[in-house]
Design brief:
- Two copies of one chain form a homodimer.
- With 333 residues, chain A is of the alpha/beta class.
- Chain A is built from ten helices and 15 strands.
- Helices cover 24% and strands 26% of the residues of chain A.
- In chain A, the strands form three sheets. In chain A, strands 3, 4, 5, 6, 7, 14 and 15 form a seven-stranded mixed beta sheet that branches. A six-stranded parallel beta sheet of chain A has the order 10-9-8-11-12-13, with helices on both faces. In chain A, strands 1-2 form a two-stranded antiparallel sheet.
- The radius of gyration of chain A is 20 Å and the shape is globular.
- Chain A starts with a strand and ends with a strand.
- At the A-B interface, helix 7 and strand 13 of A face helix 7 and strand 13 of B.
Chain lengths: 333, 333
């Protein structure tokens, strides 16, 4: 029986926010797998802000997705056929499966995940790229120390929520910036943040002043724009800004942080990070985060929607803020 | 005989570029020195871009100069009276003498300089703050390695010219940005830079592309604005931007670097530096730079003007580019 494979391909490079015509949905027959290959049935796929960057034509840290190619995405799925001795039938794997129901691969870049220990979708969230980004971002890049004040933007999101919780574990004072009362309540009441700034309903500068009366030692930025600019004003001496993302800027011509001279007088730094650089230590981080989840010190929240047909609409939730935690698309078969 | 002391005091905080009314010139009688004090006759004073920041009212790395106070400036002079056993008559000292002909001090912050080894004015230039800034900025902050490409803005200035020469000594490819043919010829022909970009007569982006075909490993920025923004485009992976100054931005509302997301994709950093943080190692740096001057590997150029009455006009040369090398005011007695 020939399997049909629904795939989302890049049809057109968007200017600004992706539109329905950015993508095409195709249904293609799957070929037989060759010697050394595996066939993966994708259960969940990860929706990440970084994906917006991958569909620009410009030079970046990985090659852009080409027009007509299946959209790149992290996935978790089950091996349903295998002609590769390293991968057994029935094993769950995570990797770059792309926005499609099935993936044929030689196994390169896919790694096994233990779905008895954690639910599969968590391996593309808190135990996947967002979790790794948070872990190495706040520890290796942010170099947080006990009693420092950490400000996190996108604090209710997949990365920000884990950043804040790790900083709490390490004894920091943690303030989150998020949009709307629900998210602010969530990060304080559920995640244990010390304070929250609702950028949709409070002046940012007042909010930071109110919460970070002694200034900011580490600002972990997922958002950019006015939020970055406001945070710069409050940097303390030797502060570190971890530049993880700039979701407010991905769909337009970016605005530069006009308060950047605060870096000078405070001997502070902004440094960009790409999680791939830490690949050789993912395993250590995963084991540590799993322990923290088991001990209850980290809460992992996935916001799961269904249906590859809804990819476009669900993807936009990254940019309109209508989600809480890690955004995931479940691929129904 | 009572000595008269001409002093430049801050009369009014400027908006934008300082104006004649920013300052007052007073002539006051000098009191007798007390036990433990010295009287210094100031021969040369240092004119530095940082001075513009010190006359703003805003929070910074040192307290602002207050209205009615003698303007802060680095000086080199001779002790002409001493009631302090640590300072002998006739000794030359450098320190914060301020914009005035004579300084009475308890000696705190003044250190002796050897005018037999180097001319006195060099101790407020290449062997003073600008030299220290260049040395620690390019070595400790820039962390240059052999064969890296280093771009320097303000390349014909007191700091930039030394930065570039040290980077050459360390085996880097060094490109300078300067305003006008004279300065560009100077940094190539006199200082040995590998290339020059005349930002007044060449498109910056073309100029950087032409000179830094493999991108930039270290950008040492004294200027900011469009120059910083253009340099960001060409950062290589793990590039370092040393934020030393932003002379193009000091007299207006600063513009943010809109290409800052280049830091993210290139895992690059911008870090601010203040030379005072390296005070415990000034001596080491001075000795090393002196050696390089003696060996001919570093050329030190002072651009000297005369007369405390001309302070305002000469100070503006920092911002209108009409000087070459370290700007110094000679105080005639």
């Amino acid at each position: 029986m020939t399997l049909l494979n629904k795939q989302i391909k890049l049809a057109k490079r968007p200017e600004g926010l992706p539109k329905p015509e950015t993508w095409t949905l195709e249904e293609n027959s799957l070929r037989e797998i060759n010697e050394g290959e595996i066939l993966i049935k994708n259960y969940f796929l990860s929706l990440d802000p970084a994906m917006r960057g991958w569909i620009n034509s410009s030079r970046s840290y990985i090659p852009p997705v080409q027009i007509g190619e299946v959209m790149r995405a992290g996935t978790v799925g089950e091996i349903i056929k295998s002609k590769n001795k390293s991968f057994e039938l029935g094993t769950f794997v995570s990797g770059w499966g792309g926005v499609q129901e099935f993936t044929i691969s030689d196994g390169l870049g896919f790694y096994k995940v233990d779905v008895k220990k954690s639910p599969p979708e968590r391996y593309i969230g808190t135990l996947g790229m967002p979790g790794m980004t948070a872990y190495f971002g706040i520890l290796d890049e942010g170099k947080i120390k006990k009693d420092e004040t950490v400000l996190v933007s996108g604090a209710a999101g997949a990365v920000g929520s884990i950043v804040g919780q790790i900083a709490k574990i390490k004894g920091c004072k943690v303030i989150g910036i998020a949009g709307g009362k629900n998210k602010c309540d969530y990060i304080i009441n559920e995640l244990g943040f010390d304070g929250a700034i609702d950028y949709k309903n409070e002046n940012l500068i007042n909010g930071i002043k109110r919460n970070c009366s002694n200034g900011i030692d580490v600002f972990f930025d997922n958002v950019g724009g006015e939020i970055l600019d406001s945070a710069l004003i409050f940097l303390r001496k030797n502060a570190r800004v971890v530049l993880c993302g700039a979701i407010s800027q991905y769909n337009k011509n970016p605005i530069g942080p006009k308060n950047y001279l605060s870096l000078l007088v405070n001997r502070a730094s902004i440094k960009g990070m790409i999680v791939f650089d830490y690949a050789d230590r993912y395993k250590i981080a995963m084991e540590q985060i799993e322990k923290w989840i088991v001990s209850g010190e980290i809460k992992s929240k996935e916001d799961i929607y269904e249906g590859i047909e809804n990819f476009h609409e669900i993807f936009l939730k990254l940019f309109n803020g209508k989600k809480l935690g890690k955004l995931i698309l479940k691929i129904i078969k």
